[in-house]
Amino acid sequence: MLKVGLTGSIAVGKSFVCDIFRELGAFVLDADQTAREVVALNTKGLKAIVENFGKEILQANGELDRAKLGAIVFADERKRQLLNSIVHPLVIERQNDWLRKCESENADAICIIEAALMIESGGYKRFDKIIVVWCEPAIQLERLRLRNNLSSEEAIRRINSQMPQEEKKCYADFLIDTSKGFEAARQHTLEVFEQLKLLI
After folding, report:
1. Domain holding 122: CATH number?
2. pLDDT tens string for the chain (200 positions)?
3. How many domains in the chain?
4. Number of CB atoms found within 10 A of residue 32's CB
């Protein structure tokens, strides 16, 4: 089994690249999805968040109000680190369970875990290879602004809260550039997949 970490900054096209890898036959786990699961209703993750951030970050139905929590943590580095210290260990535990399951199903599997903060958290060290998805900064800004309906200032603040793309690239075994649109990104992803297959 080949364990691959896939990362990249916000709004660079990670989800699109992951969809292509799934089509090609890789096992792919989305860390955002896992992060949602570990803080769902009645989980120890949600309980810990409420203990640290208060009941006001809950919706009326008791579920986490992600927009409200996001506004708090993107504006305060200390609170963002606190949230990460709650969620990351739970996510890694869930990822490890998933990797064991994949290996039991197919010992020759290419298993890709996608996570935006893999490098910042140190989680990248657990993987055999690292893929960094990136795009030109102006394109990233526009994609984020449109996708999340943000002002340019708010989008820039979110981008700046993460490690710069150029720094992330230094950790990569493989780079996938999504600047030139879907077809070019698809072709680049296919080329990387062929190289990964040679490593199993």
Report:
1. 3.40.50.300
2. 999 999 999 999 999 999 999 999 999 999 888 989 999 999 999 999 999 999 999 999 999 999 999 989 988 989 999 998 999 899 989 999 999 999 999 999 999 999 988 898 888 999 999 999 999 999 999 999 999 999 999 999 999 988 999 999 999 999 999 999 999 999 999 999 999 999 98
3. 1
4. 13
What residues contact residue 176 under an 8 Å CB cut-off, 6+ apart? 17, 131, 132, 133, 134, 185, 188, 189, 192
For the chain, how far is it from start to end, CA to CA, in angstroms? 6
Range of the domain at 157: 2-197
Q: What are phi and psi of 112, to 5 degrees?
A: -115, 125
From residue 129, alpha-carbon distances to 80, 133, 171, 172, 179 in Å are 27, 13, 10, 8, 22
Q: Cα separation of 173 and 129, whole Å?
A: 6
Q: Give the phi and the psi of residue 114 in degrees, each rounded to 5.
A: -100, 125
